[in-house]
Design a protein that fits this description.
Its main location: mitochondrion. The protein is mainly α. The protein has eleven helices and two strands.
Length: 311
């Protein structure tokens, strides 16, 4: 199989320190633009399964969304918010993933290739805090729309709700989200490096050669599985806090009791329905969605490491 000529991209990346960030950002945003409309129904399925964990399986969740949310359009509630979130995340996420390890290596006077685990740990914590702060408001809107009980005026309901307590409402779920991001990015980047190192060792792949084909796909799958089972409890708690919280009383739409939406009540509510298993509701869907996302990231990181080597 003929190899793709990447000499032009390599020259572009090496010609300026900012070009690696530009290339990473464009690749990530293009991926999000194409993939998010396909992945959004699975995200909707996962979120609704997490807040309706009395449903037995994914087929019941599909039936619930279809009958209660207006047919097929119910699977696409919150698409615009999700698409905005994914493109925005990609615009900075992949430049940070490609640039921060090398930035930290330079700052500490070491070589990235010699200290990948440490540089990736610093990178994961930086991205986690950055991403949680930037994305929580969009995530709050997305989950609110995905779990809506009504078929109309959901944007209006959301913005009316946040008028009086904007900061508290739009950052609802921030604490579990930042914990989730810290765990997610740390586990993901360390697992990615670990599985790639094991693959190189098993098949005698030199450090200066790319891992390709099924070997890279296997790294992506193992990284995805490791990450998903590490973050699912945080993800379920976050979804509980961010779900639709408007109900109808005496013909008027009003907020639910605010005391229901605390981390303590989220943990108690989830545990009461299914015990420990409740924190892993939706894991099959989550693995499927995460595999698409992590596979792209695993491939991109391997490609960038190869293209940017000696940069």
């Amino acid at each position: 199989m003929a190899e793709v000529d990447t000499s032009g991209i390599r020259r572009f990346i090496h010609s300026s320190p900012t070009n690696l960030a530009i290339f990473s950002s464009c690749a990530g945003m293009l991926r999000s633009l194409l993939a998010t409309p396909l992945q959004h129904p699975m995200d909707t399925l996962k979120v609704n399964y997490q807040i309706n964990n009395n449903l037995k399986n994914e087929f019941e969740v599909v039936k619930y969304i279809y009958t209660e949310r207006g047919g097929m359009k119910g699977f696409y509630y919150g698409l615009s918010a999700n698409l905005t979130k994914q493109i925005f995340k990609s615009s900075y996420r992949y430049p940070l993933l490609s640039g921060l390890p090398r930035f930290y290596a330079g700052m500490f006077g070491s070589k990235y290739e010699d200290n990948k685990y440490i540089m990736r740990l610093l990178t994961s914590l930086t991205i986690a805090f950055t991403e949680a702060t930037l994305i929580t408001p969009i995530e709050r809107l997305q989950v609110f729309l995905m779990t809506s009980k009504f078929s109309d005026s959901n944007y209006k309901d959301f913005f009316t709700m946040i008028k009086s307590r904007a900061r508290k409402e739009i950052f609802k779920g921030y604490s579990p989200y930042i914990l989730k991001q810290c765990v997610s990015w740390t586990v993901f980047l360390q697992a990615d490096q670990f599985y790639k190192n094991r693959m190189r060792s098993m098949f005698n792949i030199h450090e200066r050669r790319m891992i390709t084909g099924w070997k890279l796909a296997a790294c992506g799958l193992m990284t995805s599985l490791t990450t998903v089972f590490s973050i699912m409890p945080f993800d379920n708690i976050k979804t509980f806090l961010q779900k639709h919280n408007i109900e109808v009383k005496d013909g008027h739409r009003v907020k639910c009791n605010e005391n229901q939406f605390t981390i303590k009540n989220a943990v108690k509510g989830i545990y009461a329905k299914r015990g420990i298993r409740g924190f892993y509701v939706g894991w099959r869907i989550r693995i499927l969605v995460n595999f698409f996302n992590s596979s792209f990231t695993v491939v991109l990181l391997e490609w960038i490491d190869d293209l940017a080597r000696d940069c």
